[in-house]
Design a protein that fits this description.
Elements lengths: L1 E5 L9 H13 L9 E5 L10 H14 L3 E4 L5 H11 L2 E4 H12 L3 H16 L27 H35 L4 E6 L5 H9 L16 E6 L5 E6 L9 H6 L1 H8 L3 E7 L5 H14 L10 E6 L27 E2 L8 H15 L2 E6 L7 H7 L1 E7 L5 E6 L5 H7 L4 E2 L2 H8 L11
């Protein structure tokens, strides 16, 4: 395991020690036995081998002495660099992208996940064509980086790749259409979507289990969750929402993986609220947060959009009490930096009631509430209220009229006003009563 370390690093980059620890964790995620991890200072990048001649020879001697079967370099390698290093060290060499693809290949359990990972692998392999198609045999999971009989006919491989890429893209287009229809149905049902995002192993699945009691697989290994999971959750005030658990991000996440998983990650782009789960006890928490922000930006999401994102500082139970951050500042929990997150422990449950309250307040602020009184023949339109919005309260009067408070999704407001032109926006007192909160809006009843 080699971790190239440039001389100069910015505050947004993790420490060399943390990079090495993460690289070893990635290797162990697919049960590789790591013989040694080495940090390699780099003064300049060599186009042919990445490292200088002296370092290449030094590592070659260690590989021969220890009979190393695989060298992983925690850096992107060009096809030429990979080929030259394999020749110099007389063993297999993969880079960070290849390792992450191998992990994803083993962790994909749904047909969609397998297609997404295979597409990313094919696009990566297209520029290399130095491995046989062992992943098609599916004997060990993964996608063939760690084994295979050697080179095949390059032109034949290239043709196979192009044909397979076309077929996969067609299948994924069908998946994307199905997901879009599912999202449209959820929007029609007026159920808000809350998406969990964060660095891999930040505790998203543990938090998902805590909030939904779903029993989703949670594991300390990196990328334990790959396929997205959605569950309904009822917030303290009674508001139902859909909670979505997504794949974890990582530093230098291959662009081709982001592209391949775009259909899945659209669950994040379409979410009404995004919870950025951070491992606040990790020494490189700030750098990890920067990496997540970068991926969100690639997806077209502005992390600084008011009210769109809440930072959740997880694993607070691992931080000594004297070093714990201050409690939530509700209106600043939008990813703007230190002081804006909500400290919780998904493991122990500490802080999760406050988190649910914040989710409810944020969603309520984004979805207007209307007071509607139906009388006479208008009572027959009651079913339309339930179709176009979320009925928060209903009061049946002695004269047969019905007074309701209805929360409406932003995209349905125009249709709602057309159907119920008599509707009035709820004032603060009416809204508090409908939501079951104190007039100040700061405490949600359990």
């Amino acid at each position: 395991m080699l971790v190239p370390v440039p001389r100069a690093t910015s505050k947004e980059e993790r420490t060399p020690e943390a990079r090495l620890e993460e690289a070893i964790g990635l290797a162990k995620a697919i049960d590789l036995a790591v013989v040694e991890g080495i940090r390699v200072p780099l003064s300049a990048y060599r186009p042919g081998t990445l490292f200088g001649t002296g370092k290449v020879d030094e590592i070659a001697a260690e590989v021969e002495t220890d009979k190393i079967a695989l060298v992983i370099i925690d850096h992107a390698l060009s096809p030429i660099q990979q080929r030259n290093l394999e020749r110099a060290w007389k063993t297999k060499v993969i880079d960070r992208t290849g390792l992450i693809l191998e992990i994803f290949g083993e962790r994909a359990h749904t047909r969609e996940g397998e297609l997404q990972v295979e597409l990313a692998h094919l696009q990566y392999q297209r520029s290399r064509l130095v491995r046989s198609w062992t992943h098609l045999e599916r004997q060990r999971g993964g996608f063939g980086f760690l084994g295979g009989p050697g080179e095949t006919q390059i032109e034949a491989d290239r043709r196979v790749i192009e044909e397979r890429v076309i077929r996969i893209k067609q299948e994924l287009a069908t998946v994307a259409t199905r997901r879009r229809l599912q999202r449209e149905r959820r929007h029609k049902a007026a159920l808000p979507i809350v998406a969990l995002v964060g660095y891999t192993n930040a505790g998203k699945s543990t938090l998902f289990n805590r909030l939904t009691r779903a029993g989703v697989f949670a594991d300390p290994r990196l990328f334990a969750t790959l396929d997205p999971t959605l569950r309904r959750v009822d917030l303290p005030g009674g508001t139902p929402v859909i909670l979505s658990d997504t794949v974890g991000f990582v530093a230098d996440l291959p662009t081709l993986l982001v592209a391949a998983f775009r259909a899945t990650l659209e669950e994040v782009t379409e979410a009404d609220l995004i919870l950025h789960v951070r491992d606040i006890a990790h020494p490189d928490s700030e750098a990890q947060a920067h990496d997540v922000t970068r991926v969100l930006t690639e997806l077209g999401i502005d992390p600084r959009e008011p009210g769109r994102l809440v930072e959740v500082w997880n694993k607070i139970d691992l931080v000594p009490p004297a070093q714990r951050p201050a409690r939530l500042m509700p209106e600043r929990g939008n990813g703007e930096g230190t002081g804006s997150g909500l400290p919780i422990s998904a493991l122990t449950g500490e802080g999760t009631p406050q988190l649910l309250a914040v989710i409810e307040r944020r969603l309520a602020a984004e979805r207007p509430v209307f007071e509607v009184e139906l009388a006479g023949q208008g009572v027959s339109e009651l079913h339309r209220l339930y179709e176009l919005g979320e009925v928060l309260s209903r009061s049946d009067k002695p004269d047969g009229s019905i007074v309701t408070s209805v929360r409406v999704a932003k995209e349905a407001v125009s249709r709602f006003r057309t159907a119920f032109p008599m509707a009035r926006r709820a004032n603060a007192g009416q809204l508090a009563q409908a939501l079951g909160v104190h007039a100040g809006g700061s405490h949600i009843k359990n």
